[in-house]
Amino acid sequence: MSASTPVTHLWLREETKPMEHRAALSPDVCKKLLENGGFEITVEESQARIFADSEYEAAGCRLVPGDSWRSAPQDAIITGLKELPENDTSALPHTHIMFAHCYKQQGGWKDVLSRFVEGQGLLYDLEFLQDDSGRRVAAFGFYAGFTGSAVGIDAWCHQQLGGGAKYPVIKPYPNEDVLIAETKEKLARIGKMPRIMVMGALGRCGSGAVAYARKAGIPEENIVQWDMAETAKGGPFREIMEADIFVNCIYLSSKIPPFVTQEQIDGERQLSVIVDVSCDTTNPFNPIPIYNVNTTFDNALLDIQSANAKPLQLCSIDHLPTMLPRESSNQFAIDLLPTLLQLPTRSSAPVWTRAEKLFHDKVASMATSD
Questions:
Q1: If you average pLDDT over residues 309-329, what whole number do you get?
Q2: Which end of the chain has the least Cβ crowding within 10 Å, N or C?
Q3: For the residues 67-87, what does the mean pLDDT come to?
Q4: Domain of life here (predicted)?
């Protein structure tokens, strides 16, 4: 690298979403970027992040106090995972890399984009960093489905074993083996296996949901796998009511008929747990239109009102992979690395130019949408 080549400055911000332990950049990936040359990496200190601050320092990163990104140099690219705090409405003058959840007309989407417009900043939304075939370059999908399936099975077990007690707070697990062992122990105590239906089973997310069910010991005949071929006829689908657990893992890109209706859940059903991993909660096209709020790790299950006395509980946590924060963060960062290495040439690298164009298109759409 010549002396005149500008350095790309990544600033890993502290995550502020409650119970979020993941990171967009792992220490190993930071080390690889720094060894490549052309990068400077600043990391905000964090007590919640699964990786210790010392791991980043050992990789060659500079540590700064948490939540200090607003005063970062103008050329720093502020990098994070989840959206910024809702109570912060200040202008955003920096370039940001994150999951902003504002490109599908979600609740408050214009407010988010307006902050970038006001500050003349730029958003590279992680959900829309795509290769030439339109596939996302990095995603938490597998672990979202994996942990979503785990929560669904555990919630069903709690319905059998909990004696009506409130579902406990979900805390992160040190690794997947501990999580699987806990599920197996509860299933053994119950003495029977649930029937689990996974929608979007062929995608990253759905394959994760299926993988967890298998690792938990649920027989193959009890794992119902649906994808586009099965849903082509259009919902609602009676088959969902015949499962104990329904895990929705689809990627919603346009309006589709609902999978589930209030009329269905009011009627005869086996279904008692829904895990909406996709979490299109405030999307006007939400295919599970029986709820409109996200649940959280300390209040994971929403009791769905129904004329049927059989309980129906729904989980809509939008950052489930943080249940396995180290594994999911490592995988995501490794997948993102080749694209990050193109940041010094982002003005011509197709992944980044497409993402920048999409940002400007979404900003322009604010003027024409209701």
A1: 96
A2: C
A3: 94
A4: Eukaryota
3-state secondary structure of 125: strand
Question: What does the chain come to in residues?
Answer: 370
For residues 56 and 66, give the distance between their C-alpha atoms in angstroms, rounded to a whole number. Answer: 14
Element (H, E) at 307: none
Catalytic residue IDs: 82, 101
Question: Tokens in use for 228?
Answer: 């586009």
CA distance 218 to 190: 13
Task: Note whether 301 and 313 are within 8 A (CB).
Answer: yes
Please, what is the average pLDDT of the chain? 95
Structure tokens at 85: 């705090």
Longest dimension (CA), the chain: 72
State the pLDDT at residue 285. Answer: 87
SS3 state at 315:
strand
Please, where are the H alpha helices in 51-108? 53-59
> 3-state class of 77 per DSSP?
strand
- Model confidence at 13: pLDDT above 50: yes
State residue 290 phi and psi, 5-degree precision.
Answer: -110, 5
Mean predicted confidence (pLDDT) in 121-149:
96
Q: Are 210 and 223 in contact (CB under 8 A)?
A: yes
Phi and psi based region of residue 292 (left: phi greater than 0; alpha: psi -120 to 50; beta: remaining): alpha
Mean pLDDT along residues 187-201:
98
What is the per-residue DSSP string for 199-253? ETTTSHHHHHHHHHHHHTT--GGGEEEE-HHHHTT-S--HHHHTSSEEEE-----
Q: Is 285 exposed, middle or buried (0-12, 13-18, 19+ CB in 10 A)?
A: middle
C-alpha–C-alpha distance, residues 95 and 78, integer Å: 6
Kindly state the tokens that stand for 188: 């053994």
Contact 325, 331 (CB under 8 A): no
- Cα gap 201→190, rounded to integer Å: 26
pLDDT at 333 over 90: yes
Cis peptide before 236 (omega within 30 of 0): yes
Per DSSP, the three-state class of 287 is: coil
Whole-prediction pTM: 0.87
Q: Which tokens is 37 given?
A: 């040359």
